[in-house]
Specification:
The complex is a heterotetramer, with two copies of chain A (151 residues) and two copies of chain B (82 residues). Chain A is α+β, with helices and mostly antiparallel strands and 151 residues long. In chain A, 34% of the residues lie in helices and 34% in strands. Chain A is built from four helices and eight strands. In chain A, the strands form two sheets. Chain A has a four-stranded mixed beta sheet with strand order 1-4-6-2, with helices on both faces. Chain A has a four-stranded antiparallel beta sheet with strand order 5-3-7-8, with no helix packed on it. The longest helix of chain A has 18 residues. The relative contact order of chain A is 0.24. A five-stranded mixed beta sheet of chain B has the order 2-1-5-3-4. Chain B is globular. By secondary structure, chain B is α+β, with helices and mostly antiparallel strands. Helix content of chain B is 30%, strand content 26%. The chains are: A alpha+beta (151), B alpha+beta (82). Chains in contact: A-B, A-C, C-D. Chains A and C meet through helix 1, strand 2 and helix 3 of A and helix 1, strand 2 and helix 3 of C.
């Protein structure tokens, strides 16, 4: 089953994990990734990120990525949740959860989904700092490199 | 008409979420951008300074992609989610 | 912090995850892997695995693997829990939990720990089937191949 | 003396968890295995049929590894955890 969600409200990763676990033991391996708003330790630190997206297109991109992951690896359940709006430091932004009979399939699919999400899903991040300033985050070439591993 | 959407820094700097553009025959995405640039120096400056990506009807397309009446064209900087 | 445990009693992956999450936002990425007893769907199905280990040596091997992961990647917290004794279908056998500032570091460290654990930690698995028969599991060459990626 | 431990299928087939072996000068792991094989046809058969790995004092070692009085030697098949 696929479960792709783009939502404003916070999600609970542990709860999502628990829902996938109840599979009667069909899957030998579960990989969960959470990406969170990181305290950057700057003197004028990041206090929150603001996530904008392209409603409609984003969901389509994510659904296609999940289909592509399913074509490449033997995976059972996929949950992909991405928050939008303002997200405070320490809160989760994104969750990728994959179950599979085999661990390498689960790991590869989860990494693929994150790498491709970062470079192809229509989300944009703005940093808000303690002094009230804000700035759009620039795309990283390291993310492009990570995504191109799968081509 | 073509419905044009702007996102993120592009939306903010243009001070515009969306607008309608007349669709001329044989028009492609970069023609639409030239058209938008003609709206004034601020528009020209923003497009000159932004690495601009395009999606037509919610699918990524190159700037050479032809546009048709009724299309939804979205313009935005490189994505930074996750 | 490292937390390496070899134990008879069941653990709760969601609870371990929750404990790692409470870091004030220091880590942008958390990767959790759980390996579980899989229902194999055979006509005479596996009902449980029995895990034997070499007390003393196993813990040392796992601690060394965590140190090696720390030397190779920038990771913050590591939890590595492996059960021994009889484990029923659907129950967790092993947990690897890694937090890091960066997602690729967390993914690589978690995969490394699992690949190396499979081939160097002194655990042995026996399958118990519905008809009461049991059989020691044989080592897989695919696990050797996975582990040798890191050499 | 050397303390010898057996694990998994090796332990089960030999019907033995652990035993003490006299340590002769210059003895290595494979000498210890030869000594164990001399205990009877069942022992010889099991060692012939098992891909046997060794740890001396809880560190993996090759079969050529020299043994000293007081060492802990563990013999076992390839590991299968995780």
């Amino acid at each position: 089953m696929n479960k792709v969600r783009v939502q404003h409200k916070a999600f609970c990763a542990a709860q999502e994990y628990q829902a996938v676990v109840d599979d009667g033991g069909a899957n030998g391996a579960i990989v969960m990734f959470t990406g969170r708003v990181r305290a950057d330790g700057a003197s004028n630190p990041v206090t929150a990120l603001e996530l904008e997206h392209y409603p409609g297109m984003t969901e389509q991109v994510l659904e296609r990525l999940v289909l592509e992951a399913r074509a490449r690896w033997q995976i059972t359940e996929v949950r992909l949740i991405h928050r939008v709006g303002k997200i405070a430091v320490g809160e989760d932004i994104v969750l990728v959860l994959v179950s599979s009979a085999h661990r390498q399939q689960a790991f590869s699919a989860a990494e693929f989904l994150m790498d491709k999400l970062k470079t192809t899903a229509t989300f944009w991040k703005k940093e808000h700092r303690l002094d009230g300033s804000s700035k759009w985050v620039e795309a990283k070439t390291s993310d492009d490199a990570a995504a191109s591993r799968w081509d | 008409m073509i419905r044009v959407l702007f996102f993120a820094s592009l939306r903010e700097r243009l001070g515009c979420d969306a607008l309608e553009l007349a669709c001329s025959p044989g028009m492609c995405v970069s023609d639409a951008i030239v058209e938008l640039e003609s709206r004034g120096p601020q528009w020209r400056e923003v497009f000159a300074e932004t690495q601009c990506l395009a999606a037509a009807n919610q699918t990524m397309v190159p700037l050479s992609h032809p546009l048709n009446d009724g299309d939804e064209l979205a313009l935005f900087p490189p994505v930074t989610g996750g």
